[in-house]
């Protein structure tokens, strides 16, 4: 895999013939003893993404749809450079805010406040940290009492609120949103949608994974549909959303 900056032009993301497999332990090896008593290597490579190609221009927003397990989050991780595809290439011509999908990316043993400080420090933001912490608290609507609790004690919705609010603090060119709306309550969902519109109007590029085709139609310029790790169709957002609806 090659991940490098392109010449400055309007293409922000180029994914070409990407193929990615995960190692699977399919015989239930749980200890060194299990491993030593086996004759064969218990790990096999399971293909997850097959020949995935698409492009995204600056300021465009892309919706990614597909059934559970179709490979959406895996594709996002490959775009963000978190996992390395075996074949193909990902070219990114901008900075990507880390994907804080529901809970992922957060340290569950740390409190909300500690997670905020840790991630802001990792981003290396130039803005005033106290101000940013305040913005995150306000957007998340999580009380100080909650933010002082370990993240492992949060509900799924609380984790989504914390994760999304932290990723907003990151002033990157590309925002990747993995199903944040799925577990947020109605008030938070509406607020997120509003925020995504605002970012879009500021020219940010957004990749939006969702199981809600109505939201994808509202927010995205184009979409792609994944089925068993293969793009079965991509292009017009309404066409893709209708195709997704027909899967069920
Ligand atoms: N770390 C991992 N190790 C091994 N296999 C994995 C790993 N993460 C995901 N998979 C497998 O990869 C496939 C795609 O998973 P992925 O999380 O990308 O799906 P998804 O489309 O995001 O699903 P969902 O809608 O449920 O979020 C699944 O078969 C899953 O079991
Ligand atoms: Mg997923």
Structure description:
The protein is of the alpha/beta class and 248 residues long. It is 36% helix and 26% strand. It is built from 10 helices and 8 strands. The strands form 2 sheets. A 5-stranded mixed β-sheet has the order 5-6-3-7-8, sandwiched between helices. Strand 7 (222-227) and strand 8 (230-236) form a beta hairpin. Helix 4 (129-140) runs antiparallel to helix 6 (156-168) and helix 9 runs antiparallel to helix 10 (237-245). The longest helix has 16 residues, at 186-201. The radius of gyration is 19 Å and the shape is globular. The protein starts with 10 loop residues before the first strand and ends with a helix. Residues 1-8 have low confidence and may be disordered. The structure holds adenosine-5'-triphosphate and magnesium ion. Residues 72-73, 178 line the site of magnesium ion.
Task: Briefly characterize the structure.
With 248 residues, the protein is an alpha/beta fold.
* Basic shape: globular
**Main sheet attributes: strand count, strand direction, barrel closure:** 5 strands, mixed
Poorly predicted tracts of residues: 1-8
Strands across the major sheet, in which order? 5-6-3-7-8
Ligands and ions found: adenosine-5'-triphosphate, magnesium ion
Helical segment count: 10
Output the structural class. Answer: alpha/beta
Number of strands: 8
Residue share in β-strands: 25-35%
Radius of gyration: 19 Å
| Average pLDDT reading | 87
Helix content: 25-40%
Distance between the termini: 35 Å
């Amino acid at each position: 895999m090659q991940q490098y900056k392109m010449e400055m032009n309007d293409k922000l993301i180029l994914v070409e013939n990407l193929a990615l497999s995960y190692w699977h332990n399919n015989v239930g090896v749980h200890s060194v003893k299990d491993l030593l008593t086996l004759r064969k290597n218990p790990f096999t490579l399971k293909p997850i993404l097959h020949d995935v190609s698409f492009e995204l221009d600056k300021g465009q927003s892309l919706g990614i749809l597909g059934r559970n397990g179709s490979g959406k989050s895996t594709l996002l991780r490959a775009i963000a450079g978190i996992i390395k595809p075996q074949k193909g290439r990902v070219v990114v011509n901008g900075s990507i805010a880390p994907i804080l999908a529901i809970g992922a990316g957060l340290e569950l043993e740390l409190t909300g406040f500690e997670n905020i400080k840790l991630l802001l420090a990792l981003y290396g933001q130039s803005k005033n940290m106290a101000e940013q912490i305040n913005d995150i608290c306000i957007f998340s609507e999580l009380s100080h009492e909650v933010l002082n609790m370990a993240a492992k004690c949060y509900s799924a919705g609380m984790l989504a609120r914390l994760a999304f609010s932290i990723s907003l603090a990151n002033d990157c060119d590309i925002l990747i949103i993995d199903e944040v709306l799925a577990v947020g309550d109605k008030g938070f969902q509406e607020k997120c949608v509003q925020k995504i519109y605002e970012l879009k109007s500021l020219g940010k590029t957004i990749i939006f994974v969702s199981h809600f085709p109505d939201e994808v139609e509202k927010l995205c310029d184009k979409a792609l549909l994944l089925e068993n790790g293969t793009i079965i169709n991509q292009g017009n957002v309404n066409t893709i959303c209708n195709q997704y609806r027909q899967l069920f």
